[in-house]
């Protein structure tokens, strides 16, 4: 048998459209030009009289609607665990939109929403979880001829979810915490992860330690490009005022706000007097006392 396929009365089969089975006509990638009424017929080789046309099958192929726009509110690169965020999908003013779908491209999660009275649709995260992270896209559809005609997908928007800032680690040089007066003291605060912007704070006996009269300095190092996870408090010359209990903490900028971390474990600093200086002080002070005593005695005896 030989077969022939027709669309709207005109022959459409071609070698590249035929499958291995001679009675099958493939439409591997539909476009609007494939719309129409299809028939087929056959004949026996050697005969020129074809059979009657089959019953028609009508195919309607629609252009996909243009993509919607997808936005995130607040528009942040990162969010903290438990924060709130909203994805908004807005179509380009297409009439008779039936519904919207949001897709998490990482987890494969799909959620469907009816059109919002104000236009588009919103997916609200009342408290973000780690499973909510990933790139999102959205589509809208219209019901036509008993089918859902989906639009082209939007550009992706990513949600990144972070744990809240955790406790930093505090260390010092010398490690014992006992230092002679006049020697340099280094106290290092290290945050546990590398992220973007940070602000470090040091505390002495519960109050924030602000560099000032002690000529101390607070500096931030960058072990990796773009990170700020280590800060060092430098006191060039330790004094008795440097004795006390030190802690540190930091603030991390997440979603346009500064979020404080818990304070570190405390380290105790004890500044001891310089023995050479103390001996010199005693010798000079004692000599001065003896000389003054002798002058007092001589002056009284002579008088």
Automatic annotation (TrEMBL):
<protein>
    <submittedName>
        <fullName>Alpha-1-B glycoprotein</fullName>
    </submittedName>
</protein>
<dbReference type="GO" id="GO:0002764">
    <property type="term" value="P:immune response-regulating signaling pathway"/>
</dbReference>
<keyword id="KW-0472">Membrane</keyword>
<dbReference type="InterPro" id="IPR003599">
    <property type="entry name" value="Ig_sub"/>
</dbReference>
<feature type="transmembrane region" description="Helical">
    <location>
        <begin position="277"/>
        <end position="298"/>
    </location>
</feature>
<keyword id="KW-1133">Transmembrane helix</keyword>
<feature type="domain" description="Ig-like">
    <location>
        <begin position="168"/>
        <end position="248"/>
    </location>
</feature>
<keyword id="KW-1015">Disulfide bond</keyword>
<dbReference type="InterPro" id="IPR013783">
    <property type="entry name" value="Ig-like_fold"/>
</dbReference>
<dbReference type="InterPro" id="IPR007110">
    <property type="entry name" value="Ig-like_dom"/>
</dbReference>
<dbReference type="InterPro" id="IPR036179">
    <property type="entry name" value="Ig-like_dom_sf"/>
</dbReference>
<dbReference type="InterPro" id="IPR050412">
    <property type="entry name" value="Ig-like_Receptors_ImmuneReg"/>
</dbReference>
<keyword id="KW-0812">Transmembrane</keyword>
């Amino acid at each position: 048998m030989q077969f022939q396929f027709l669309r709207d009365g005109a022959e459409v089969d071609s070698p590249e459209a035929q499958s291995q089975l001679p009675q099958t006509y493939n439409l591997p990638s539909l476009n609007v030009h494939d719309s129409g009424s299809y028939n087929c017929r056959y004949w026996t080789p050697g005969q020129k009289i074809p059979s009657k046309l089959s019953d028609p099958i009508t195919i309607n192929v629609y252009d996909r609607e243009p993509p919607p726009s997808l936005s995130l509110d607040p528009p942040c690169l990162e969010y903290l665990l438990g924060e709130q965020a909203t994805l908004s999908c807005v179509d380009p003013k297409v009439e008779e939109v039936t519904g919207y779908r949001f897709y998490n491209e990482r987890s494969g999660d799909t959620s469907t929403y009816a059109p919002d009275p104000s236009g588009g649709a919103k997916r609200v995260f009342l408290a973000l979880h780690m499973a909510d992270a990933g790139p999102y896209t959205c589509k809208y559809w219209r019901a036509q001829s008993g089918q859902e005609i989906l639009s082209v997908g939007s550009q992706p928007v990513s949600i990144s979810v972070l744990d809240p800032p955790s406790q930093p680690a505090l260390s010092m040089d010398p490690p014992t915490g006992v230092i002679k007066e006049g020697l340099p003291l280094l106290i290092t605060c290290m945050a546990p992860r590398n992220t973007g912007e940070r602000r470090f704070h040091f505390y002495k006996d519960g109050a924030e330690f602000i560099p000032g009269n002690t000529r101390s300095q607070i500096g931030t190092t960058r072990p990796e490009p773009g990170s700020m996870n280590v800060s060092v408090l430098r006191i060039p010359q330790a004094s008795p005022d440097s004795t006390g209990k030190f802690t540190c903490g930091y603030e991390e900028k997440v979603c346009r706000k500064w979020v404080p971390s818990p304070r570190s474990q405390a380290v105790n600093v004890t500044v001891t007097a310089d023995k050479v200086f103390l001996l010199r002080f005693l010798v000079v002070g004692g000599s001065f006392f003896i000389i003054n005593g002798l002058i007092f005695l001589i002056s009284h005896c002579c008088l």
